[in-house]
# Entry
Amino acid sequence: MPEKQYKLWKQLHDDRLYLKTYNEFLQQFSDPAKAERLYAMMYADRYVTQPFPDFKKKFFDPETEQPTQKYQGTRMYAKADKDSLKTNIELEKKFGTKYGDKNLWTRYAYINQDESLKDMIVSNENQIDPYVLAGTLSGEGIADELFKRSQVDPYSTISDMEKTGKLFYGTQYFGLDDFQGRYEEFKKKGITSLEPEKDFVPYGEYVQEEGLTTQPADFLSARAGINATSTYLKNIQNVIEESGIRGTPEEKELLIHVGYNYGENGLRSYLKKSKTAKDIINRIKTEKPQVYKNARKRVIVSKELRESKSFELK
# Structure
């Protein structure tokens, strides 16, 4: 639950009367005298009409209600208070020491704090393990967008992005570069219920770095984009299971991310080389180190979210 001051900042920010970030607002008006001057200006402009004691009680008196959260692992990371800053520093050190990537903590953190996003991930239409799906999304542009928005508004959620009415770009936000082109295939396989014009619209032709031309789609909602992501993951899972390779769930999870990052045809080429996931992973690690590195990052985020019980209900 946001603090009382947040409600005032949000009101002013939405009306474009205060354009700085929420954390800057807190710093600027944390002093009671400055809060009173803010009230005086708002009262003079007839933006508020209640007496100052009522204004102060509504927006600046200490909280009496405790924050409510749906999932066990949820916590805020974008707030500028001492506890959040301490947690963020500790996470940065942890990811740096444990995984050699101190910047990876942000992808874990800003998925972990968005309960609207968690709801969409948990209810994905292909029943993909939410931790696997979250790990996939952590490596795509949607995680960057959530982080960027949280720097202005720490309580911003993916649902707030939907309210803007803007499209969720398939390539930019989800790494989906051929959903339009493969839609009929996925529909026949029964792994998507999305509908053209209702859930997604064609992007047009997209030329990849390799010179290949694909047909992406842009999505009319975040949920549609997440369900499309689950469609790809379900298809990749089926490819892995149909190959008959032997391996642990953890090894197969990494191969799922390889398939998402490298493409199903690239994954198939390696699935033909061995019947054990361990051997395939070692080959990929040696021959395609960047693919392995990208997949490994997603596995790390999935692992840390699992350990935090991020998708378990309170």
